[in-house]
Structure formats: C-alpha cells, structure tokens
Design brief:
Blueprint: E1 12-16, H1 22-25, H2 38-54, E2 58-62, E3 78-81, E4 84-87, H3 98-108, E5 113-116, H4 129-139, E6 160-162, E7 167-170, H5 174-186, E8 192-195, E9 205-207, E10 210-214, H6 223-226, E11 232-236, E12 253-255
Parallel strand pairs: 1-2, 4-5, 7-8, 10-11
Antiparallel strand pairs: 1-12, 3-4, 6-7, 9-10
Active site: 155, 250
Pfam families: DDAH_eukar (PF19420)
GO molecular function: amino acid binding; dimethylargininase activity
C-alpha cells in the first residue's frame, strides 16, 4: 500500500490497571504451571502503556477495579470504528459490569455514537455468532462483518493479527491455518500472509507505523519472521498476563 496513508493511524488509547485480584481470580482456559507474578505483571503493563505513549497516543488510564479481576483486558469490552463504539455484552457473566464504566469512558472521549449490545448477543468467548454479527453490522454498518470459526482459542486475534497495512501474521496451528483460509475466502482485500510457528506470536499490534510484538525471549522460534517485515518495530514482555490468556491486543482499545 505504498504511497497511501495507513489505515492504522490512532490518536488515543484506553487502558486499565492490573487489579490485585487478577492472579487468583482472572478467567483462564488452563491453569499455568507457575502463578502470575503480580509485581512483574504491573511492570510489564507499565511498559506497554509507555510504549503506546511513545508512539504518539494520548492514553486514558482507568484505575484497576478489584471486583473485576479481568478488567485489564479492556479490548474485550468494546469495538470502535469511525467514531462509533459498540459496547460489548461480555460472555462471562462476572465481567458484564465492566461495560458500564467503559461506556462512560467512551462517551467522555467524544465518540460520535456509543451503543450497547443487547441479549442474547455476546462479543467474546462463548458468543452466539449469528446474533453477534447481526448486531455488529447493524450498529457499525460502515465496517463489513463476516464470521470466522474459532473453536480452541479465545479470539481470532489469538492466532492472527495485522502486522502492517497489508500483512496478516498467522499462527502455525491447524486452527489458525483453517481460519486463514476462511479469511482469504471472505476478505474484500487481498492480504499477504506471514506465518509464525507459534500462535502466541501471531498476536501483535500495528500502530502508527510501528509493529509491536512479543519479546524475543517469549517467542524465540518466531522472532525472525517479524524481522522480514520492514519498518519500525518494538518488543514488549507479556509473560505474566499471558498466564491468564492475555495478549498484547487485549490490553487496549485504540481510537483514531
């Protein structure tokens, strides 16, 4: 997409602090072999926030809410496109109270329209695909929406994300490869595929011309693949929040 302005230019981000309740009570698919080191998780999260600021974003930092152990994973709570925000009805009942604060935050940031999903639609794990897509398309019609099958991972972004304007990094698992075939079939734009051996490594962020991916120590078998992509890059550690299924993209909502 040389000569064209990137579609991944953002001015603001929303993040939330790490609650003390996270190590013991956050949702997770599998229990990690080692417990979450809370202090290390906070340090890594601070580096994440600092990175967003360093690439030019105005960051709104919400305080941790101890009654919601997963509150640091703000991406689950809303989708923003072209000034319209869709506030999610989260899949796990214990998280649904997070939506109230997020709706208020999005309104304060001047979004043109902030709407909430209605029952029975859900926007994260365990959601009803047909109702989710229907509500998403109705509330954000300027963003075409198709369903992609996700069975073993929490989210599609757990196994593929944008790494540049036209490159999608895809994990090496069978599920990731099958999902990619669906994306190829349904996408209106022809994306380039770059495969990494580990699905974990496939979760990265392309923000304001900078590719943010996991630290080399966390993805030793995949980091060389990222080196094939031209442009500015940044590595971040996420070893602690990954123990409760947290990815880099989970930690922020980006606004243009």
């Amino acid at each position: 997409m040389s000569g064209k302005e990137s579609k991944f230019q953002y001015t603001k981000a929303i993040v939330c602090g790490v609650p003390h309740s996270l190590p013991a009570a956050a949702q997770r698919q599998n229990h990690p072999s080692e417990p979450v080191d809370f202090n290390k998780a906070v340090r890594q999260h601070c580096e994440y926030v600092r990175a967003l600021k360093n690439i030019g974003l105005e960051v709104t930092e919400l305080p941790a809410d101890e009654q919601y152990p997963d509150c640091v994973f703000v991406e689950d709570v809303g989708v923003v496109c072209d000034g319209v925000a869709l506030v999610a009805r989260l899949g796990h009942p214990t998280r649904r109270g997070e939506s109230t604060r997020m709706k208020t935050t999005l309104q304060k940031l001047g979004l043109v329209q902030v709407v909430e999903m209605n029952q029975p639609a859900l926007l994260d794990g365990g959601d009803d695909e047909s109702s989710r897509i229907e509500q998403f398309s109705r509330n954000i019609p300027q963003l075409p929406c198709d369903g992609i099958s996700v069975t073993e991972h929490l989210h599609l972004k757990s196994m593929m994300t944008m790494a540049s304007d036209d490159i999608i990094v895809v994990g090496g698992s069978d599920e990731a490869q099958n999902a990619w075939l669906e994306v190829e079939k349904k996408a209106k734009f022809q994306y380039k595929k770059l495969m990494v051996p580990d699905d974990t490594a496939a979760n990265c962020m392309f923000v304001n011309g900078t590719l943010i991916h996991l630290a080399t120590a966390e993805i030793p078998n995949s980091v060389e693949v990222f080196n094939q992509i031209p442009g500015q890059k940044m590595e971040l550690e996420n070893s602690e929040l990954s123990k409760v299924d947290g990815c880099l993209t989970c930690l922020s909502i980006l606004l243009m």
